[in-house]
Every structure is written in C-alpha cells, then in structure tokens.
Amino acid sequence: MDCKEEIDLSAPGPSVIERYFTRWYKADVKGQACEDHCILQHSNRLCVLTLAETHPILQDGRTIKNINYKISNGCSRLNNKVAGKSKRGGQFLTEFAPVCRITCTDETEYTIYSCMRGRLLEVNEDILINTSLLLKKPSTDGYIAVILPKFEESKLVGENLLSREDFEAVVSKRAPPRVKS
To answer: Which UniProt keywords are given for this protein, alphabetically ordered (predicted)?
Structure first.
C-alpha cells in the first residue's frame, strides 16, 4: 500500500490540560468587570478552579501580597478534610461560595468564588507558600481548588458556564483598557 501520511513529529502535542480537561468559564463573576474564573472539568467529574487568563490578577504585572482561604471567623477552607471513597466531610459549595481572597500589593482584593455546586476536595496550599505559582501557572501548579460535583450534576456543570468560544466572544466585546496619560 502506498498510503503514507506525513506527520510532523517536531510539532508539540496537546498539553495535559488540552487533552484531558474541558474548559468552562464564568465571566464577570458577581458583576465584577473582568473578574473571570475558569473551571477545568476532567472526564472523571473532578473540577479544578483556576483564574481565567483575563482576570485582573494576571494582568499588568501585578504581584500578590496575600492569599487567604479563611472566609469568615467560622469558616476556613484550609480546615476542609475529606475521607474515603465517597469523599465524605468535604465542605459543600454553592455556585457563589467564596473559596479564597487574594490581595495584591496595590491593596486590591479579589474574592474567588467556586462558580459551581459541589464538594470541596482540596485547596492548593502551595500557592500560600509560593504566590508566584498562581501568576505563572494558573491552570496547572497555580490552581486554587479542586471541587467534585454530585454525580447527577456533573453533566450539568457547563450549563451555567461559558465554553471557550463563548467566553472569547464575551471578552472580544469588552471595551479596551484605558491608557493612562
């Protein structure tokens, strides 16, 4: 057979994120302009909460002063403990449950919300020690939390979120940032 297909072996393959996760976005969370979040949904139902690349924290060379998982006096996401196959004991999050607060060096504070319903499995304590992970690798090592939706809701995660194409359409309609003179 003379069926030879040319394959470019030097071209990089898809990343782990592109290959195994579906990206979902929540634009302008709680009405805050450009405060966009991203949910990476794996085929096994696990969802990883990250910042969308358009979030103000990732713009303009900002630096992070503090990341705080303590939501109130009675609620700290760091105290979340899960056990067993069914992940019992994880804090249940609603769509607008705050997960953490991030303060930049210019004292601007951003609250990061779960954007979906599910059980909090873990928070990324590595970003407390090395805040630059959130800035440099927001979709991988700098993730914020891992959330597990209920089985019956796992197929509905994207219903209240935007696909990548829809998100890009929303972002393209935004006014360009003002240049200070």
So the answer is: Cell projection, Nucleus
**Euclidean distance between CA atoms 47 and 86, whole angstroms:** 16
Of residues 4 and 144, the one with the higher pLDDT is 144
Query: What is residue 108's predicted lDDT score, i.e. its pLDDT?
Result: 93
Answer yes or no: are the C-beta atoms of 108 and 56 closer than 8 Å.
yes
Residue 26, SS3 per DSSP: strand
Of 87, 62, 43, give the one whose Cα is nearest residue 51.
62
What is the phi/psi pair of residue 175, to 5°? -70, 140
Which pTM was predicted? 0.85
* 181: confidence class by pLDDT, cuts 50, 70, 90: very low
Query: In angstroms, how far apart are the furthest CA atoms of the chain?
Result: 72
Please state, in angstroms and rounded to a whole number, the distance separating the CA atoms of residues 65 and 103: 6
User: Which residue type occupies 133?
Assistant: L
Per the CB < 8 A criterion, the answer to whether 132 and 126 are in contact is no
